[in-house]
Amino acid sequence: AKQFHYTQPYDWHFHYRHLVDDHNNKRHAIPFCEDSWNTDHWTFCVFTFLFAVTEVNVFLVHKFWTYRTDPSNLPVYVAFRRQLAWQFIDNPHLVSELKEANDSNVFKKDSPF
C-alpha cells in the first residue's frame, strides 16, 4: 500500500489546528476581559484582547514549564487567573513607585490624583 506524506506546512496544520480553538476557549473563560470591561473604545478593546491573549499564554507557559512532570497539582484556570490578579494588585514594584512619588511630593494637593 502506498502512503501519502503531507508536506510540512500541511502536516503542522492538521497536527496543531486545535490549538487556536483551545486558546480561544481559555481566553473566553468566564469572566473574560472583553466582556466584563464593557467599552466601545477601540484602544481599550485592543488592550483587553491583548491582555487576555497574554494571560492565556502565561498560563500555558506556566503549565508547560512548572507542571509538565506532575500535572496533578496544576491549578484550574480560574484559580490561576485569581492568583495573577492579586499579583497585579499587590505588586511590590508599584507600591515602591507610589511611595517614592508620595515622598517626592509629585502629587500636589490640587491634583485630582
Question: Mind sketching the topology for me?
Answer:
Elements lengths: L7 H9 L1 H10 L5 H4 L5 H25 L10 H13 L2 H12 L10
What's the short version?
By secondary structure, the protein is mostly helical.
Describe this structure in words.
The chain is mainly α and 113 residues long. Helices cover 65% and strands 0% of the residues. It is built from six helices and no strands. Helix 2 (18-27) packs across helix 4 (42-66). The N and C termini lie far apart (75 Å). The model has no long low-confidence stretch (mean pLDDT 81).
Defining key terms:
single chain, 113 residues, mainly alpha, 65% helix
Amount of helix: 55-70%
Task: Give the overall pLDDT as a whole number.
Answer: 81
Unreliable segments (pLDDT under 50, ≥5 consecutive)?
none
Order of helices and strands: HHHHHH
Main sheet specs: none
Q: Tally of extended strands?
A: 0
Q: Could you tell me how far the N terminus lies from the C terminus, measured between alpha carbons in angstroms? A: 75 Å
Report the principal-axis shape.
elongated
Work out the radius of gyration: 21 Å
Instruction: Enumerate how many helices there are, as a single number.
Output: 6
SS-based class:
mainly alpha
Strand content: under 5%
